[in-house]
Amino acid sequence: MYPLRRNRRLRQNDAIRSLVRETFISPNDFLVPLFVVEGNGVKEEIASMPNYYRYSLDLLKAEVKELWSLGLKSVLLFVKVPDKLKDNNGTEALNKDGLMQRAIKTVKDVCPEMLVMTDVAMDPYSSYGHDGIVSDGIIVNDDTNAILAEMSLSHANAGADFVAPSDMMDGRIFEIRSLLEDEGFHDTGIMSYSAKYASAFYGPFRDALDSAPVDQQHVPKDKQTYQMDPANRDEAIKETLMDIEEGADIVMVKPGLCYLDIVRDIKNTVHVPVAVYQVSGEYAMLKAAAEKGWLDHDTVMLEQVTAIKRAGANIIASYFAKDVVRVLQ
Ligand code: PBG
């Protein structure tokens, strides 16, 4: 073939590279996770997530307006719950004046068009730091689902556009969809964390929300009985297909970079939007390496989000969203 075929012809300058480029990143790709805390005037940096913060509701307003002005039109809300409000049933999660419910209203007040997605899971509310009710060392499935459905309804009532169950209980999408339909929330969507792995990359997030499983007798030390084994691939497709059947509008693979083969498998298999969560540990890793001067932050960041999109992501949930927009501008 050589010299008829010289692949470098398509790489010789910026103009031709731009012309043949296959993947583009824009603000439209991103879903921005936001951490919310009680209080006033609080903007606390998360120790293991440099330049990422927890906001009290008053300061959340400015942050949301800034995101909107940058073209970032979707947020994913998480709340940090005070210890004294935590119990085994996550009772506080259903408080209609709880922090999440107020956070949803706050975002909608300052920016009605901002798409609001909410984390639906018990762990920030659980005294054991688990995504379900703990009983005799077991995470109980069906009773947890009933709570997740009520939590979703409560978020919908407060004005959430999408609920995003991140727990990995079996059948929860069906329970949530059914209750939302029964209560008239036909247009409230579900983004399911459908292929969520039992990953060690969630460490900084658990610092951010103080939500790690507690070290106590009869409490599982990790989430391996509900989150997926990183070694498995077929199982990710099975989980995802089941969630779609149960009523998920958007499915998700989590974490991102280590699981791009799964993203591509799922993208090739399903016909709903696929979200990828570039998780806290992925963020922390790059920030740390850049701080040391070992990696070039912006270039590596763009390479990573481009790779996630190239693998098949339609939506990228990422702590880098603002950084990416800054670099693109
Ligand atoms: C828990 C939840 C986790 C994340 C999102 N929702 C952590 C976990 O499963 O322990 C992790 C996100 C991240 O690491 O950025 N329901």
UniProtKB/TrEMBL annotation:
Record's keyword annotation contains Cell division: no
Keyword tags: Heme biosynthesis, Lyase, Magnesium, Metal-binding, Porphyrin biosynthesis
Enzyme Commission number(s) from the entry: 4.2.1.24
Molecular function per GO: porphobilinogen synthase activity; zinc ion binding
Any single Gene Ontology cellular-component annotation: cytosol
Pathway: Porphyrin-containing compound metabolism; protoporphyrin-IX biosynthesis; coproporphyrinogen-III from 5-aminolevulinate: step 1/4
Binding annotation for Mg(2+): E239
Biological process annotations from GO: protoporphyrinogen IX biosynthetic process
Protein's name in the database: Delta-aminolevulinic acid dehydratase
Species annotation: Marinirhabdus gelatinilytica
